[in-house]
Specification:
Helix content is 46%, strand content 22%. The chain is built from 5 helices and 7 strands, in the order βββαβαβαααββ. The strands form 2 sheets. A 5-stranded mixed β-sheet has the order 3-2-1-4-5, with helices on both faces. The longest helix is centred in the middle third of the chain and has 22 residues.
Length: 175
């Protein structure tokens, strides 16, 4: 059975998502779910759920992975992130009958041999050959985190496809 994996990097303002299906240059898509910070919390959560539902119905994943809630922020932000993560988990179960795997940021950083999230961002930019003058860490780190998490999940957790190849001089990544 071919794996259809959806990865989510949950954020209240800009949730990154990445989807992969198939082997050797299969389908690979990614994007952001952006909520309007001017709207109330309930409206933002509702919009987030609607957009996530669309992704789940379009891609019909067999596996879903989400990043664990980052606890290194203030309590108010932690509470808001927990609400978005809860909506995501409920939505995944009610729409796709899948309980998402929650992956630690540390697992992804260890996979990429990165010291911090900025290093992961830089590695993904390098792997994809993106122009770093057009992509910004502050605006796009949720997107690159979702992609990095997807690659790590496929390789390290599922053992389905090797993205990282060990060479004499270090590691190579192929997407």
């Amino acid at each position: 059975m071919l794996m259809r994996v959806l990865s989510l990097d949950i954020s209240a303002s800009s949730t990154g998502w990445a989807f992969a299906f198939g082997q050797a240059r299969g389908i690979f898509e990614y994007g952001l779910i952006k909520t309007n910070p001017k709207f109330g919390e309930a409206e933002r959560l509702s919009f987030f759920r609607q957009e996530l539902t669309k992704l789940l119905q379009e891609f019909r994943p067999t596996h879903i992975v989400i990043e664990d809630v980052y606890s290194g922020v203030n309590v108010q932000i932690l509470k808001l992130l927990a609400k978005f993560a809860g909506v995501a988990e409920e939505c995944c179960m009610s729409v796709s009958s899948i309980e998402p795997v929650v992956l630690s940021t540390n697992t992804v950083k260890a996979y990429f041999k990165a010291k911090n999230k900025k290093d992961v961002f830089d590695i993904i930019i390098d792997i994809f050959g993106w122009d770093d003058s057009k992509i910004d860490y502050k605006k796009h780190n949720d997107l690159t985190d979702a992609i990095a998490q997807l690659i790590c999940f496929y390789d390290k957790v599922l053992g389905y496809r090797k993205f990282r190849f060990e060479k004499e001089y270090g590691y190579l990544y192929e997407v």
